[in-house]
Amino acid sequence: MALVTPLSADHDLETKELAEFFNETLGFCPNSVLTMQRRPAISKAFINLNKAVMANEGKVTSALKRMIAWVSSNATGCRYCQAHAIRAAERYGAEQEQLDNIWEYKTHPAFSEAERAALDFSLAASMVPNAVNAEIKERLYQHWDEGEIVEMLGVISLFGYLNRWNDSMGTDIEEGAVESGNKYLGKHGYEVGKHDGSQY
Questions:
Q1: HEC states along the chain?
Q2: Record's InterPro entries (predicted)?
């Protein structure tokens, strides 16, 4: 069991309507959102922020945003969000070679220099203490404009919230997310950990 039990998807109808967004991104409403709706203002604000952050207004694709989310979640160690991010990257058309080699994005030829700069930014911004520096900035500006950098940091920051939420909650992971985590991350030792319901 998680720290706090998720409520039924029908508990708050406004949240339920907004949460249809996740049927496209994940194929299900995440347990994290079902827990947040114990205070519906939080669940609704979170979903609206998620939708705004994941909107595409520049060259940062939906697939790259989800890979940025994966790198951030990997840096913080949140297994729940790693699985969700890689699942969403798959659903949004990330190349198979990238999905299979996300752990090696720094050197694998499936990733462009622009993608590497974005993913290195995600890694540096997710560290404690923060590791974004002049070199990261210079590399970002070689490939991305300021609006696109804002989009990227929106993803990183959103997942900073989610990483803390789900690791602290020990949120029970959904079967579809487990499947994606095992499929793409299992060869590198991915395991559900505290999100299997046994932490509390």
A1: CCCCCCCCCCCCHHHHHHCHHHHHHCCCCCHHHHHHCCCHHHHHHHHHHHHHHHCCCCCCCHHHHHHHHHHHHHHHCCHHHHHHHHHHHHHCCCCHHHHHCHHHCCCCCCCCHHHHHHHHHHHHHCCCCCCCCHHHHHHHHHHCCHHHHHHHHHHHHHHHHHHHHHHHHCCCCCHHHHHHHHHHHHHHCCCCHHHHCCCC
A2: AhpD-like (IPR029032), CMD-like (IPR003779)
